[in-house]
Design goal:
With 859 residues, the protein is an alpha+beta fold. It contains 26 helices and 24 strands. It is a multi-pass membrane protein.
Length: 859
């Protein structure tokens, strides 16, 4: 009980300093809790949606996915004959059955030819209005569609694009473009995660989406009273026989939920990874806080030992303080995490994904995980300072506050740090020298781990030399105040090293990712310059294939000299070594593609691959399956016949653009795949007549005005798109890493605040002999800048080393150019100085307000 009272008294006596450490715990726990609450809420939302929209049993055509997704490389959904509906209605246990048609391979535009698709990446779904939809949608104005000239739209899409009754819209599919006027608006009865829904009547949907009457994509079956879904499924399968996909409501919902969980899983674990980084940075803050508190209370601890307190009691007293800090920070963090989840939901709503706070899901595991993480990490971080406190001897009560440094421990630390850093460097060397990226990745991971730990351990040793160098460059201009700031930073190298290490971690990751991202862009643009001979690339950024009407509009552009179509489909391969490879990609392109993409070959000529019944393979594929020029590969095309193709060229695997592609001509594909099953173009290359490039660019854009889902890019545009794509990804990662940097800044603030308290008497004496308040504040600010720049130098140097090694591995995959983004590196370094200035504002202000006489009288 005495130990608990002592711990509570000490905790409350230093509540201001504890608050900064609690904020670090709070932020880390909040990020973990917020991620868990957000993903659980997303799962709840989709669970309700899928449960509400799934019929008791759904019958789909062979080729439909488990989720009922109807996209295909032909742009038309797989369909069921009308006779299937009659057979299902006659099955025992069926109360009702209804044929429906829907597709997601569509684009919907308004009168101005602007896309009405969600910006969030959610699907655009056009289908027939049916009884199953009527259960989940309520018509709020107008009426359901009747006749080819009417369409109904969901209320969220109508609000987002300011659509009203009577407005005309166009549905663009592989069949063509169908225009209709809005006859009704329907609101979701459950939360809509952002999909845009458009409804036609059944005959119109059949003509618009499939191009033929009397067919359905699905048959929705409702069970009679007392008939289970499983029993109904067995009856339907028995009546229809094989060749159909039949699923219960639970199976359909589970398949949809699996896709959602895969998407959410990537986001969830990425966010948890960054929360882990924040925890790691927070550990340094907590260690520093308790180390300084223990150092300041050396006399008090010595007196406790002198009057009978055991080492265990002193140790336990410090750990109880850490436990209180962990519990308080974790509880606040769990609450803040729920707020973060709500904020993420509001943010998603701004980009079109509507999530209702009514579905907010806080599982019992979330606060438990948050509390456990926060408390365990805090107590573990405080263990070393607590152990150090337990070693304080009673004789320390007779000394001034502050325990002498352990020289032996410093030597051991330096040796261990050197060994770990050297081991990490050797692992990075092995990674850069690896012949296969899979082998090098393991060495890279070990190198990052060991070098990071090594730099953390050896940080106090490096602090002495690096702070002097930084001081010579940055602080000498500030005269005696600068020299005092340098000495303050050098006074306790362990503290400076730990504080700088917290900032180092976040900046190392920033530097590494910047190098990797810049190298990827530079490598891709370099290969683009070397290999792409076409003037323009036309494709959909959302992954939709080009409709025949759009391709015709491109080909009809008079300024173009040639147009090259590019298709991707699936086939089963039987290679010369007797192996069968199922559902493998094969690329079909016009013969001019050999000119449009100057792909490096290691054997043969790529132009020969476009001869009838010929193909090319890439080098690694050839090596794995014993393929050489003249080898025969049996290719069973999906939706077509089997061909025996001769290998006429072997391309290099060491490329970025079209890496791993296996080429045939569109003529060969058409020979074995009927027209009804021919895949649409993934993209199209276009080359202008000599001297007409400038005129062809606007002409192409004008030709595709009615097809806003497609983008025309010249090579410059394509490079910019690559930069933007990687830049957006990096900006998102930098934003998440900002959490770790915020925690590191708190560490600098805490270190300076405690350092000011530790030096209260010294500050009073300096003020008494003439140091002005302004000079005192400047001294503390400069000390903070030195610590921040020390952490930045360590982090940026380490990160660039990681990034350069990672690029060596990427070079094995064709990304050969190493580019150091010096503007970013220099900007981060300079920014670190401002971070130091910002972190010192409050400690410097408090030091400047200190009463001189009271400070001198302090013991």
């Amino acid at each position: 009980m005495t130990v608990l009272k002592t711990s509570l008294r000490n905790f409350l006596a230093h509540k201001g300093r504890m608050a900064l450490s609690a904020v670090a715990v709070l932020l880390s726990v909040a990020f973990v809790s917020g991620t868990l609450v957000f993903t659980d809420t997303m799962n709840t939302t989709f669970d309700k949606l899928f449960a509400a929209t799934s019929s008791d049993v759904t019958v789909s055509a062979r080729g439909a996915s488990d989720t009922g997704e109807t996209t295909s490389d032909t742009g038309r959904p797989p369909v069921l004959a009308a006779s299937v509906l009659g057979k299902v209605r006659a099955v025992d246990g069926v109360r009702s059955a209804e044929g429906t048609v829907f597709s997601t391979s569509v684009t919907v535009v308004d009168r101005k030819k602007e896309s009405l698709s969600p910006s969030s990446g959610a699907p655009t779904i056009v289908g027939s209005w049916n009884g199953n939809d009527a259960r989940t949608m309520r018509i709020t104005s107008g009426a359901a569609p009747h006749g080819s000239g009417q369409v109904m739209v969901d209320a969220d899409t109508a609000d987002r694009h300011h659509l009203g009754l009577g407005d005309e819209i166009g549905v663009i599919s592989a069949v063509g473009t169908h225009t209709a006027k809005i006859s009704g608006i329907a609101a979701f009865q459950v939360t809509n995660p952002g999909a845009a829904m458009f409804y036609l009547d059944t005959p119109t949907a059949q003509r618009t989406l499939v191009g033929q009457p009397g067919v359905y994509t699905n048959v929705n079956v409702t069970a009679a009273d007392g008939v289970s879904d499983a029993r109904l499924k067995r009856n339907v399968v028995g009546a229809l026989g094989p060749g159909y996909q039949v699923q219960t409501a639970k199976e359909t919902a589970d398949a949809n939920q699996k896709d959602v969980e895969e998407l959410l899983g990537v986001m969830k674990y990425a966010m948890l990874g960054f929360a882990g980084i924040a925890f790691l940075v927070g550990i340094f803050l907590i260690i520093n806080t308790f180390s300084m508190l223990v150092a300041q209370r050396t006399r008090e601890i010595g007196l406790m030992r002198a009057v009978g307190s055991s080492r265990r009691q002193v140790n336990r007293s410090v750990l109880i303080e850490a436990l209180l800090l962990g519990v308080l920070g974790s509880l606040l963090g769990v609450g803040a995490g729920i707020g973060i989840a709500v904020g993420l939901m509001k943010l998603m709503s701004l980009v079109g994904m509507n999530l209702s706070t009514g579905d907010l899901t806080v599982a019992w595991t979330t606060p438990v995980i948050g509390l456990l993480l926060g408390v365990v990490v805090t107590v573990l971080a405080a263990y070393l300072p607590a152990r150090r406190a337990g070693k304080v001897s009673p004789m320390a009560a007779l000394r001034d506050a502050g325990a002498p440094a352990d020289a032996r421990a410093g030597r051991v630390r330096a040796l261990l740090g050197a060994v770990l850093t050297g081991g990490g460097g050797y692992c990075l060397y092995l990674a850069s020298a690896a012949d296969k990226s899979s082998e090098g990745s393991l060495w890279l991971g070990l190198g990052v781990l060991f070098s990071l730990i090594g730099f953390v351990v050896i940080g106090p040793v490096l602090a002495g030399a690096m702070v002097r160098v930084i001081g010579a460059v940055v602080l000498r201009a500030f005269g005696p105040v600068g020299r005092m700031a340098e000495r303050n930073a050098l006074r306790n190298p362990r503290r400076t090293g730990a504080t700088g290490a917290a900032l180092m971690i976040g900046l190392a990751l920033v530097a590494c990712l910047s190098v990797v991202g810049s190298s990827m862009v530079a490598s891709a643009t370099d290969q683009l310059d070397e290999t792409v001979g076409a003037d323009f690339i036309i494709q959909s950024d959302s992954g939709q294939m080009l409709t025949p009407q759009a391709v015709k509009a491109i080909k009809d552009t008079p300024e173009l000299a040639r147009v090259t179509e590019y298709k991707l489909t699936k086939a089963d391969y039987t290679t010369p070594d007797g192996k069968t490879l199922k559902n493998t990609d094969i690329t079909a392109a016009d013969p001019t593609y050999a000119t449009d993409l100057r792909t490096e070959t290691v054997a043969g000529d790529l132009k020969d691959a476009y001869l009838p019944d010929s193909m090319s393979v890439h080098e690694k594929f050839a090596e794995d399956h014993g393929i050489r020029l003249g080898s025969k590969i049996t290719v069973a095309f999906r939706g077509g016949r089997t061909a025996h193709l001769t290998v006429r060229a072997i391309t290099s695997s060491d490329v970025v653009i079209d890496a791993g592609a296996k080429y045939i001509s569109t003529e060969t594909l058409a020979r074995y795949v009927p027209a009804a099953n021919m895949p649409l173009d993934m993209l199209v290359f276009a080359t202008a007549h000599q001297g007409q490039q400038k005129d062809a660019y606007p002409a192409l854009k004008a030709a595709l005005h009615d097809y806003p889902q497609y983008t025309v890019r010249d090579q410059s545009d394509y490079k910019d798109a690559l930069k933007d794509q990687i830049g957006q990804m990096l900006n998102m990662i930098y934003g998440l890493l900002g959490l770790a940097i915020v925690v590191a800044v708190l560490g600098v603030v805490n270190t300076l605040a405690l350092s000011v308290v530790e030096r209260t008497r010294e500050i009073g004496l300096m003020r008494a002999i003439g140091l002005s308040r302004r000079q005192l504040r400047r001294m503390i600010r400069l000390e903070s800048v030195v610590i921040a720049l020390f952490g930045a130098l360590l982090g940026l140097g380490l990160g660039m080393g990681w990034g350069a090694t990672a690029q060596k591995l990427l070079a094995l995959e064709g990304l050969r150019v190493l580019e150091i983004p010096w503007p970013t590196i220099i900007g981060v370094f300079v920014g670190s100085a401002f971070v130091g200035l910002f972190a010192a504002l409050v400690p410097a202000f408090r030091a400047g307000r200190m009463n001189v006489l009271a400070a001198i009288a302090t013991e």
